[in-house]
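ok, trying the design again with the full structure, not the truncated one.
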């Protein structure tokens, strides 16, 4: 059974997006409701600014969800990525999402 963990991010999204999209970690990267040819972090910031966010360091700026399959399932990274995309589409249809599947750990 997969494990889903969500946390609220209080740092600027540049750091989180920079980490999850690192080429040495992420084999698959997709976005939802974002332009692929523009900075994802800048788009997050612009959207937040429209809603009056980013005024206080301690406020939530984004959510970071981690989906981890059970090793016993022997899930292929591509299938895990497809599942994560489908989850984001269903649960967050109108939200900006960066979906990355890491394959750098066993």
């Amino acid at each position: 059974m997969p494990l889903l963990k969500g946390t609220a991010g209080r740092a600027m999204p540049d750091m989180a997006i920079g980490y999850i999209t690192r080429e040495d970690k992420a084999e698959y990267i997709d976005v939802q409701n974002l332009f692929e040819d523009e900075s994802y972090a800048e788009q997050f910031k612009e959207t937040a600014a429209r809603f009056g966010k980013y005024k206080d360091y301690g406020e939530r700026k984004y959510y970071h969800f981690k989906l981890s399959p059970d090793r016993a399932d022997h899930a292929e990274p591509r299938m895990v990525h497809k599942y994560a995309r489908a989850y984001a589409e269903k649960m967050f249809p109108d939200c900006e999402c960066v979906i990355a599947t890491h394959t750098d750990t066993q």
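Keeping the full-length input from now on. Residues 51 and 58 are 16 Å apart (CA to CA).
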